[in-house]
């Protein structure tokens, strides 16, 4: 399998030609490529349902800070992806979304190499905004590592 190049992401027209839920399902099924950030950060799409998305991954040595613990940006990226993509599952065909703001609360450090699931769940999806919550839990032990919340802007493509 060849390495993914940033230009390998799905064209914008492809995304706009289907609902957000259909697009996320196409990604899960491998019909559209994952975003390049997933390769860099080391996570993959694991589940998709309307209003809910799960990403799985494990932080490695390249994701640690000078103290040797997993960098807070790794938690933030996983939660932003899970929460915002959960909102995406509620976005209609011909529309886009973007993160307006998000917050992360780290509960405990994730030991490098620990497989986690980042779950995003929508609590509101309207015409112009979407709100979601997220958690990062250990796959093997169910430990809570972080929580988050987001507000996304939903807009018609122009």
TrEMBL record:
<dbReference type="InterPro" id="IPR029069">
    <property type="entry name" value="HotDog_dom_sf"/>
</dbReference>
<dbReference type="GO" id="GO:0016787">
    <property type="term" value="F:hydrolase activity"/>
</dbReference>
<dbReference type="Pfam" id="PF03061">
    <property type="entry name" value="4HBT"/>
</dbReference>
<protein>
    <submittedName>
        <fullName>PaaI family thioesterase</fullName>
        <ecNumber>3.1.2.-</ecNumber>
    </submittedName>
</protein>
<keyword id="KW-0378">Hydrolase</keyword>
<feature type="domain" description="Thioesterase">
    <location>
        <begin position="68"/>
        <end position="137"/>
    </location>
</feature>
<comment type="similarity">
    <text>Belongs to the thioesterase PaaI family.</text>
</comment>
<dbReference type="InterPro" id="IPR006683">
    <property type="entry name" value="Thioestr_dom"/>
</dbReference>
<dbReference type="InterPro" id="IPR039298">
    <property type="entry name" value="ACOT13"/>
</dbReference>
<dbReference type="InterPro" id="IPR003736">
    <property type="entry name" value="PAAI_dom"/>
</dbReference>
């Amino acid at each position: 399998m060849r390495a993914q190049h940033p230009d390998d992401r799905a064209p914008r027209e492809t995304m706009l030609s289907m609902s957000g839920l259909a697009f996320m399902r196409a990604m899960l099924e491998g019909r559209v490529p994952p975003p390049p950030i997933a390769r860099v950060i080391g996570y993959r799409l694991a589940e998709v349902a309307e209003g809910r998305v799960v990403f799985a991954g494990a932080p490695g040595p390249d994701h640690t800070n000078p103290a040797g613990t997993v960098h807070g940006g790794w938690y933030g990226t996983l939660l932003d992806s899970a929460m915002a993509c959960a909102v995406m599952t509620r976005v209609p065909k011909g529309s886009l979304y973007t993160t307006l703001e998000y917050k992360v609360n780290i509960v405990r450090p994730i030991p490098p190499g620990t497989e986690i699931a980042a779950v995003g769940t929508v609590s509101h999806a309207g015409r112009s905004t979407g709100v979601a919550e997220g958690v990062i839990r250990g796959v093997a032990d169910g430990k809570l590592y972080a929580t988050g919340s987001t507000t996304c802007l939903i807009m018609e493509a122009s």
